[in-house]
Amino acid sequence: MLKEMLASRNLPALKPRDEMLGILQREVYGFLPPKPDDISFTQEKDIIRRFCAGKANCDRITVNCRVDGREFSFPILATIPNDRTKGKYPLFIHINFRPDNPDRYMPTEEIIDNGFALISLCYEDVTSDDGDFTNGLAGILFPDGKRPADGAGKIAMWAWAAQRALDYAETLGDTIDLDRVCVCGHSRLGKTALFTAATDPRFAFAYSNGAGCSGAAIQRGKTGETVADIVDRFPFWFCENYYKYANNEDKMPFDQHYLIASIAPRRVFVGSAEEDAWADPLSEFLSSVAASPAFEKGIVCPDRVPETGDRFPEGDVGWQIRPGVHYFSRLDWQRLIEFIKLHS
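The structure corresponding to this sequence follows.
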């Protein structure tokens, strides 16, 4: 059944990773900003005293970068368990909508109790979520506010910042297991998490939650949000080359299974919600299936349309659908944690 469903979508064939990434950067997200000319970190320790009932420290880190000869900085929060008898901790890098810790999308104490460390960053501390390309990292890259047709959109800039958070994590090699780092996010930041991992092989895992259109869901035959919808409301997330595919998805020399496949041979987990029709859970699932040949062990699932409550964690590509709406819930985190532990 699934083979026939994919055939009806008429998807482009998978290509070598570098070729798929080149297409995605040129045609969708814009090219990733360059790595910093220089980077350093300023630490403010224990900004929340006795955090997580004394089980963890929460430090604020300022990431200081020189990019194209200009200075740029942004904050991240590092929450590291205090117990040093358990060896190195796997790490989540969570691209979040708010700077709060904990947050409605980030149950920090539960994450710590499950044996993980956590670094979080607020996306608008990097650059604003709008069409202004003169502030934050956008202003560094495009001082006149203008960009070329394949210039980085905001998703690429937020991904760049998440990669700098991993640069900081690499300074914690005595406490962080750098072979078990997962980048994660919800909605537009789920799209960002996938692009972050696709363009940086240091991430062992990626998790997208409700990433939908231009993220985890294939666009051909998709219901809910379309390319026309997203470039009308949020054109600044993407490069200008993407706009020409509005109401023209069949002409795309790619589809979103390229983004998932570009994470191979590492692992990726895609989360969907039953009532999230705008994201289209079925198209997120089919994208995971279509990307699977790029992995040593693709998605492991029955040959049928999935049902609410299904989760398929056994393969290098995992997928789950829970009841409810567009939200990064505790259940999503619990299933993500299970996926990483299963593959660690």
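Residues 269 and 336 are 7 Å apart (CA to CA).
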